[in-house]
Amino acid sequence: MPIVYRSACAQDLERADALVVASINALTERHGFGSIAATHPTNFQAFSLKDDARGLWVAEEAGEILGFAWSWVCGDLWFLAQLFVSPGRQGSGIGAELLKRTLEHAGQSGATSKALITFSFNTVSQGLYIRHGLYPRFPIYNLSVARDVLTGRLQGGLLRGIPLRETASHLRDLALIDDRSLGVSREKHHRYLMGDAATKGFLLHVGSECVGYAYVSAGGHIGPLAVTRPDMLDAAFRTALSLAAEVGAPQVSAFLPGTRDDSLNTAVEHGMRITLPMVLMSTRDLGDWSQYVPRNPGFM
């Protein structure tokens, strides 16, 4: 039967997530990293589907999902959150067809910047993205540390964290921080995170000045984190490490861009080790990533 490419619906999301997990694990096992992915609730996919269904697509044959693509738009930024094909059907053009449809989403939305985060060892996909004008910009490292190791190395000099609330003043602070770091508003994504019971958000202050924000998940993962100027990133990251340790999860983790030596040094000094190398790809420079720490490759 022919492959059908169609817009995704809510009933597709769990099956699509299972396909994504299988595809990721096949790739990471092939490159010696073992199985790293597991299924999770598809809350952010569902949020994106409700927000703008034009960005989610499936490739299907005889009722079986063979591929899944998911992109979202904020302002003039189009971001490819996921593009995966079933391991047994890769190399057959399904990925290119799905990418073509998500790129149409970018055009329909008037986005002038396009970006994604992918595995640095996924050279086949990088070649596909380069052919569509997205080029590697810098590495991003997933780092992790056991909480008991981290707590023995935490140091002072922290910023003051104020729990985030969905108030006009807090949303204004978040918008200012995002404008200075990324150059684009992500208000809808902040609202999503503030409504997520498994995530805690904080505004970061020096005295009365708001200099950044940080989110920490119940699983001990840090991100997104952003600051108003580069010299604040290391202090903000140190603060986030302390906040993550307070959660009590057995591991603390973060995705750190390879754009700031001090923050990478801080991670290593606190016992963090690189577990996975990734890379940001984009059509042009995107904000100042010496001021930003992403949440994950799908959320950015």
Q: Key features?
A:
300 residues, alpha+beta, 13-stranded mixed sheet, 34% helix, 32% strand
Helix content: 25-40%
Distance, first to last CA: 36 Å
Q: Determine the strand fraction and express it as a percent band.
A: 25-35%
CATH topology of the largest domain: Aminopeptidase
Going by CATH, the architecture of the largest domain would be 3-Layer(aba) Sandwich
- Radius of gyration from the CA trace? 19 Å
**What is the strand tally?**
13
Mean pLDDT: 96
Number of helices: 9
Q: Class of the largest domain in CATH? A: Alpha Beta
How many domains, as an integer? Answer: 2
Q: Low-confidence runs (pLDDT<50, min 5 residues)? A: none
Q: SS-based structural class? A: alpha+beta
Categorize the overall geometry: globular
- Strand and helix order: EHHEEEHEHEHEHHEEEHEHEE
Instruction: Characterize the largest beta sheet: strand count, sense, and whether it forms a barrel.
Output: 13 strands, mixed
